[in-house]
Structures are given as structure tokens and as C-alpha cells.
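Ticket #4471: structure export looks truncated?
Reporter: QA, pipeline team
Priority: medium

Steps to reproduce: submit the single chain below to the structure queue and open the exported record.
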Amino acid sequence: MPSEVTKTEVERDDEQEEDENNIQEQEQEQQTLEIYRKALTFNVIAKYDPLINQLIHLSSYCVVYKYEENDWNKLDYQGPIAFYSRSAAELSEATKFSVEQVLKQDHYKYGLIILNRAKPENFTIGFLGNDNLIAEDAGKGMFVESKEKLVIVRDFKGDTFGLWLFDPQDREYLYKFLKYCVDN
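Actual output as written to the record:
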């Protein structure tokens, strides 16, 4: 009789070990797919912005709104959103630009792109910390806030956009990155 109990315990241990192995295999597959997805996204973005250096944040779905005439208007941009660092020239804290220089030249340290599923044109915004603006243009810099399920961004042209991300955690994560990049 004790041999039957031992056999059952051994069978249970084998089943538990097999379950643990299956879980580990599934986790490895998910990690591999995630690495592949990020590499593929990096390569796609590099076609649009060859200065991409590193993906910082990636989210599966975003919709863009523009604030005009005291109302949010949905734009025809929706799809995966990526925020990334760029290999722009190294800027020291002493390097200062006017907003006009920023708009004419490519001084952005970071980029945001929505790989549009609605039409062939993607939505992009370049980011540069407000610390890199000359004193006279300090009030014309970028602005980022989180409000009413939107990450709100004012660009150097003065346009205000709302980014709605499906996942609230992704939205908060992206907001924190954008805020940091604009404030530093």
C-alpha cells in the first residue's frame, strides 16, 4: 500500500514539474516575441526617422486629437505609438536654441510617432527639453500634461494635441516620460 501512495506523489511531482516547464517555455516564447516586436518596430521607425537610437516606450493603440476653437477634434491618426531617443548631436545644458531654430533644424533629442493604420501618413512630434531654449522663447516651449484620459502635448508650433492610449498604465507611463523630456 505505501508503494501506491509514493507512486501517486511521484506522479504529482512529475505533473507539477511538467507544468512549471510549460510555464517557463511560454514565458520564454512571450519574451522572444516581445524582442522581435520591438526590433521590427525599431526598423519600421528607422525608415521614417533614421536618427532613432533607442525605443523608450511602445503601446499598441493611440488616437490623436487636436485642440482647436475650444474643442477636441479627432484627427485621422490611430495605431501603435512609439516614443524613442534620437542620435541627434549631443547637446550640453549650455546649448540654447530659439524656437525658430528648432523648427528649421533637426535638434530634437526624442521622437514620438504613431504608425497610422487609418492612412499612409504617420503622426510625429519631435521633443527637446525647454532647458535648451533661449530665455526669450521660454514661454514658447513644449508643454505636457495628463488630463481627462489624454496625454496633452503642445509642440513648438503652438499646436495642442491630445493622445488617447487604450491602456491607462501605458498612458501614465508615456506621460511621465514626455514630461521628464520636456522639463529636462
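Status: closed, not a bug. The export was complete when the record was re-opened. Leaving a note from the reviewer for reference: Helices lie at 2-48, 99-104, 168-183.
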